[in-house]
Amino acid sequence: MRWTKTMTMVEAHAEGEIGRIVTGGIGRLPGETILETLNWLNRDGQALRHFLVNEPRGFAQMSTCLLLPPKHPDADTAFVIMQGDKTHAMSGSNTICLVTVLLETGQIPMVEPKTSLVIDTASGLVKVDAECRDGKCQSVSLQLSDCYAERLDQAVDVPGYGTVSVDIAFGGIFYALVDASSLGLTIAPDQARALVAAGSAIHRAVNAQLDIRHPEFDGIEGLSYVMFTGFTADGEMQGATIMPPGRVDRSPCGTGNAARLAVMVARGDAQEGDAFVARSIINSRFDVSIEKVQDREGYPLITPRIKGRGWVHGIHQIGLDPDDPYPHGFTMSDCWGEAFDLLD
Question: Are residues 56 and 87 in the same domain?
């Protein structure tokens, strides 16, 4: 073997959404905080993301997460999430994958019946309780950092769709939440292409027309995803998060539902202590709840909890041959969709 770099990863999925956890081969990355590391990756470290995420070593329907040493003294571990468009600050499904991998591979000792730990992320500390039995991580419950609704019923002019009403909210990253029925769409597998087309158009329009920035976390700015919202026939929450350049999150989406809960509280449709079932486009399930609501400068700030399950399904290494003509990989619209303008 003559690879010039080698990386080891463990693959898992959380309710259908794949999260690959890179456990070795990264080396030390710049940054005194995880937020600084995130900003470096999005500014100067793009080659690492392209190598991991793009074909032929990666594929569209997944995230690749970098396991990092924590920078915060209260944290047990840290990570960032790499996807086709950029490196992201937080993801609920990927956190579930991360915890499942760490406990089931012994990188963090599993304590039964409950293992508790703290994860350092670019958008704050995430407190974790994992239910464990017979060596298996049965479920992962996440107390996310503070989330809030930034704008309600914001009108956005979307080419091809007219004026669309969106809610902008922060659930660890920024979302535009759109009622799927307002565009004549339903959240179902056979509607995935139509949802992606509409979501990509809304994504472009929101970022072109609105200035979205976190008030405390420098560099966490702009819309990350569009989440279409609705309800199942049984009245359970349902959502479909659209990820650049054109795919639907297979999980119910942890950060998306955190943003949705913040909007519900801001509207008076939910309050502290409320709990809901959230379903994905493939009917997988997260349990979501509102642990705390506090007032900050006239608007409600919520502490959400997201609970779901993860399963480890693979371990492998990837590397780079010095003659490989695609060291940074490539993307094609047959698998990645057509919204390449949303990629970096």
Answer: yes
